[in-house]
Write a structure and sequence with these properties.
5 domains, alpha+beta, 611 residues, single chain, Elongation Factor Tu (Ef-tu), domain 3, 8-stranded antiparallel β-sheet, 6-stranded mixed β-sheet, Rossmann fold
């Protein structure tokens, strides 16, 4: 199946780097827009909130700029801005060189999956050539082994304009992977504000899918409905937006207070809200080791929540990858492939990060950690059937399987199951049926619904029926009415049972139309089983509380039909004359004749029935 993609004619570039290393000044020099809009930012000369602007490049492409704060106390804001960017401008001051936040931002960008960018040595007008050369060497050392190891290192000055044309050309020349337009629309909210005459407006970078004006979206994790009543991309009104674009949405039906940072706008019903997430995680080489079960800060998109990190295959060791189950204090919305960062609870430092593997994860028990880790290893290698295996014997609904992009499952009625689960259920049903035959050797088969127990109770009624149908097609089960049996199953009476069966028929035959209640039958063991068998074989029938030999009832039917043919009706007196039965014994047989269609009641008499 082809994947629809967005041509990267428009892309998002984020700034990164230590505080006071000229990120905002560089963006201002490139675009002419000062993103330090808050009075506090202008007064202190640092960026506190995220800033956004865009620029038409020489080729006609357009770059959206996300300017992030560099202060260590605002790293969470930096992560919110960096989520969803296509490339980065890593700014390093030629005056100070590489600093702690430079390295931390570089680590975070790598964890978030950013793979393209430029390195800009800023403030070059403030140093001599020797200092500039030292700063350049310092930057190259810091970049070694990172995703920017081969990136251009450009020299600039926002004050003099040095290097700005080269930076624009390098940005324009970035080779970026196209964004997929498949999947649900998702926009993590990084800003919310009220605009006079419009109401509530949110902004963010669309991660996937597309949205059209007038469309209904959900607020996640609350799952409240809102309607889009206006879209802007790069400050221009549009009829739609899609993955990879900086997008502003005017929303109807929601107040600004209901849209904190961390809210995700998404296509209805297609993005899971979860509090247990299984991930592939890399612990930074310079981060302190953590024991499994430690509390951490989880930053995903624009969301920050506290979580407990359980290492499924060991403690979180510097420089090592682990499969981890994150159990969050608050629900969040995510999909497989989403990038995240973990930071220490206190003191707040970056620990590592990775990629979401299973946002529908079941809670792992400690004794099952290694098994869960093995499942995640397979899932990380592309074995998506693991998601079905984790759904267990109940499987997934067809919509759930579709939302997970699963095509490897087996459909049973209204459920989709892993092939291994279907095999286990087949074995369970056959075991139940074999057990029934063993425990009730005189029964011709088991009631279909009576077998849906134990592990088979996990199946919906429709899925259970489909399982029976599957085994029937495989000739491993035979269906007769409401009963199931093994194809090779036959009731075989031993000599003792045969003698009891013959004694039962003799007593009922002798009783003729009087019949016998069960408690009146003597010397027959096991009575209930043999009575049921005799009925299944058509040798005995029950009318009211009494049992009769089928041959006797056939004789009665022949006599009744003769009377109806001669007289046109059957009166109570005529039936008493025919059968010799008093009223108490006659009523069950008359009702039996009606039920069989031999007669039909009309007033106090019977007339010919339908059969």
């Amino acid at each position: 199946m082809s994947v629809e993609t967005a041509r990267p004619e428009t892309f998002v570039v984020g700034t990164a780097g230590h505080i006071d290393h000229g990120k905002t000044s560089l963006v201002r020099a490139l675009t002419g827009v000062d993103l330090d809009a808050l009075p506090e930012e202008r007064q202190r000369g640092i960026t506190i909130a995220l800033g956004f602007t865009s620029l038409a490049l020489p080729s006609g492409r357009r770059a959206s700029f996300v300017d992030v704060p560099g202060h260590e106390r605002l790293v969470r804001t930096m992560i919110a801005g960096a989520s969803g960017i296509d490339a980065v401008l890593l700014c390093v001051s030629a005056v100070e060189g590489v600093m702690p936040q430079t390295r931390e931002h570089l680590d975070i960008l790598g964890l978030l999956g950013v793979r393209r960018g430029l390195v800009v040595l800023t403030m070059a007008d403030l140093v001599d050539e020797e200092m500039l050369e030292l700063a350049q060497e310092d930057a190259l050392d810091a970049l070694e082994g990172s995703f920017l190891e081969r990136a251009p290192v450009l020299i600039s000055s926002a004050e003099t304009g040095l290097g700005l044309p080269g930076i624009l050309a390098a940005i324009d020349a970035l080779e970026l992977s196209p964004r997929s337009l498949d999947g649900p629309f998702r926009l993590p909210v990084d800003r919310t504000f009220l605009q006079r005459g419009f109401g509530t407006v949110v902004t963010g970078t669309a991660l996937s899918g597309r949205v059209q004006d007038g469309e209904e979206l959900w607020l996640l994790p609350s799952q409240e409905k809102v309607r889009v009543r206006g879209i802007q991309v790069h400050g221009e009104k549009c009829g739609e937006s899609h993955a990879g674009l900086r997008t502003a949405l005017n929303l109807a039906g929601v107040e600004r207070s209901e849209l904190p940072r961390g809210t995700v706008l998404a296509s209805p019903g297609q993005v899971p809200v979860c509090s247990i997430v299984d991930v592939r995680y890399r612990h930074l080489a310079g981060a302190p080791a953590l024991e499994s079960g430690a509390s951490v800060r989880l930053l995903l998109g624009t969301t920050e929540v506290m979580a407990v990190a359980h290492g499924l295959d060991g403690d979180l060791v510097p420089g090592q990858e682990r499969f981890v189950q994150l159990r969050t204090a608050e629900p969040l919305a995510c999909l497989p492939g989403d990038r995240f960062v973990l930071r220490r609870e206190s003191p707040v430092t970056t620990l590592g990060g990775g990629q979401v593997l299973d946002p529908w994860a079941p809670k792992a028990k400690r004794r099952g950690f290694l098994e869960a880790a093995e499942q995640l290893r397979r899932l990380a290698e592309g074995e998506r059937v693991v998601l079905l295996e984790r759904a267990g014997l109940a499987g997934l609904s067809r919509k759930e399987a579709e939302d997970r992009g699963l095509v490897q499952g087996l459909v049973l009625g209204d459920r989709v199951l892993a092939p291994g689960a279907v095999v286990e259920l087949e074995q369970a049903l056959l075991a139940e049926l074999d057990g029934f035959h063993e425990q009730q050797p005189l029964a011709l088969g088991a009631g279909r619904r009576s077998l849906r127990r134990g592990r088979l109770e996990a199946l919906s009624p429709a899925a259970f029926d489909a399982l029976v149908g599957r085994l029937t097609e495989l000739a491993r089960v035979e269906v007769e009415g409401p009963r199931l049996r093994r194809p090779d199953w036959q009731v075989r009476l031993d000599s003792t049972q045969q003698a009891a069966f013959d004694a039962l028929l003799e007593q009922l035959t002798a009783s003729r139309w009087e019949g016998l209640k069960a408690q009146e039958i003597e010397g027959v063991t096991p009575l209930d089983e043999l009575l049921n068998l005799a009925q299944e074989w058509g040798r005995v029938e029950k009318a009211g509380p009494r049992f009769y030999a089928s041959a006797a009832l056939e004789e009665l039917v022949a006599g009744v039909r003769q009377v109806l043919a001669d007289d046109g009706e059957l009166s109570p007196g005529r039936f008493k004359e025919l059968s010799g039965l008093a009223r108490r014994g006659a009523i069950p047989l008359l009702e039996w004749l009606d039920a069989k269609g031999v007669t039909r009641r009309r007033g106090d008499t019977r007339v010919p029935g339908a059969s």
